[in-house]
Amino acid sequence: MKWNVKEWLRRYGSAEVLSVLATLGGAFLAFELTRNSVSTALAGTWAGNVAYFGYILALDIGQTRRQLHAAGQAYTFRTLLRNLRALVVEFGLAEVFDSFLVRPALMYYLPKAVGNLAGGILLAKILADVTFYIPAIVSYELSKKRLRRF
């Protein structure tokens, strides 16, 4: 597999920035409302996911719309389903493991271990991203040839 670091940074970089902000915001809000570590971990995980995947989906839709418009074709509901399928292939395996096990567990334990909510959540996010991006990038590279041609 070719190392496409610039492409990966373009694809994932802005989504990561949004995800960090949403993760911290969701975790802090949940902590302030509940003072519960489980709620804090889950809220941080899912707020980050919504921001991340919302941005990636918007990016993919925009790119596909431009491609189709240049070819004189319309973006349809079927095209949206193809965009969604490509995302499931790219992130599915990595996301299930990440969102239901790795990230919430790290966001639960690390703030306690480091003695700081923000530092623990941020450290948890960084560590979880390592286990997330390895399978996600491999899947993305494999899916480009078949699932991202519109």
Characterise the protein shown here.
The chain starts with a helix and ends with a helix. The chain has helices at residues 5-34, 37-70, 77-114, 117-147. The longest helix has 38 residues, at 77-114. The chain has one domain (5-147). It has 4 helices and no strands. It has 150 residues and is an all-alpha fold.
Keywords:
mainly alpha, GtrA family protein, transmembrane helix, elongated, transmembrane, 150 residues
Cα shape: elongated
Mean pLDDT: 93
How much beta, percentage-wise? under 5%
SSE pattern? HHHH
- Distance, first to last CA: 23 Å
Provide the gyration radius in Å: 17 Å
What is the domain total for the residues? 1
Largest sheet data:
none
Number of helices: 4
The portion of residues assigned to helices is over 70%
Q: Which structural class matches the secondary elements? A: mainly alpha
* Number of beta strands: 0
Unreliable residue stretches: none
